[in-house]
Amino acid sequence: MKTSLIVLMLALVSCQPQPESSQAYYDLEETGVRSGGIQMIPIHNGTYKVWTKRVGNNPSMKVLLLHGGPAGTHEYFESFDSFFPEAGIEYYYYDQLGSYYSDQPSDSSLWTIERFVEEVEEVRQALELDSTNFYLLGNSWGGILAMEYALKYQRNLKGLIICNMMASCPDYGAYADNVLAKQMDPAVLAEIRTLEANKDFSNPRYMELLMPNYYEQHLCRFPASEWPDPVNRAFKHMNSSIYTLMQGPSEFGIAGRLAQWDIKDRLPEIKVPTLTVGATHDTMDPRHMEWMATQVKNGRYLHCPNGSHMSMWDDQEHFFPGIIQFIRKVHAGVSP
After folding, report:
1. Strand, coil or helix: what is 180?
2. Which residue is catalytic, options 79, 95, 282, 311?
3. Could you say which of 99, 102, 140, 250 is catalytic?
4. Which class would CATH give 35-172+257-331?
C-alpha cells in the first residue's frame, strides 16, 4: 500500500506545470562562433548595419526595445536585465541607425520618421518576430517610432507599449512651456530663455542651469552625480548632430524636424493591445498619456507616481511590474 501511495504522489507531481529552466531561457540557439546574442543586421538595401542583442529564449514573448533620442542608445534600457529574465521574457537591445553601436552615416536625408519605420520593419524581419510573439516597446523618441510603426505595420504586432511619449510634439512643447517651465525659479527660467534666444546652447552655463532645475527633476530623478552608469553612458554616446536635427538642442521643449509631428487623430487606427506609460514628474503630460489609452481600440494606462522620463530607473517599483503584467495578459489572451 505504501508503494502505491508513492507511485500516486509521483504521478501527481509529474502532472504539475514545470517551470522553464534557466538553461532553456538563456539558450540563444546560436550556430558557429557564439556572440552572446549580438547580431549586426543589414538595412537600407544592405548599405548599413545596425546593432542588436538578444537576451533570453521565449518563443511566445519577445520584446524589441526602441530607445530615445533620436540617436540615443540602448544602454539606458539595461535596467531591464534586472526584471525581464526573471519574468521569462525574451528581449532585444537595438541601436538605431546613427546611434553609437550601429553605423553612423552622415547623410542627413536618412533622418526621417518614415525611413526609421522601415528600418524597424527590416530589423523585425531579421529577428523573425511576428504577430504571435512580437511586443514593441518605445520610450521617448522610441515612442514616436513605435506609434508610427504600429500605424503602418500593426499586423506584425502582438502588443504595443508606448513609454513617456505624447502623441503630439506641439502638445509636448505646450506642456513644457505652460506647466514645467512655471515650476522653475523665475530667475533661472529667464536666464535659460536668454541663452536659448541667443542660441548659446554650447555655453556651459546652459547645462549648469538645466541639469539641477530640469533634468534632475523631469528626466531622471537622482542627483546627476548619482545617475546610473547606463544612463551616463547613453548620454555620453548620444549622436548630438542627429539629435539636434530632429529633436532640437534641449529636452526642454522641442524643435527640429519633429516639431510639428502629431498623430492624435490617428490613435483610433491602432487596434493591437496597447499600454501607455506616464509618470508624475515626466517631461510628458501624464494626463495626455492616460488619454491616449482611451483613444486606441484596446488600451490600458500605467501610471508611475514616483517616476520621470526614465521611470525604468526612478520608479522601477511601478514601471516593471506594470509592463510585465501587460505582456502576460496579452500573452494569455486576456484584455489588458
Report:
1. helix
2. 282
3. 140
4. alpha beta
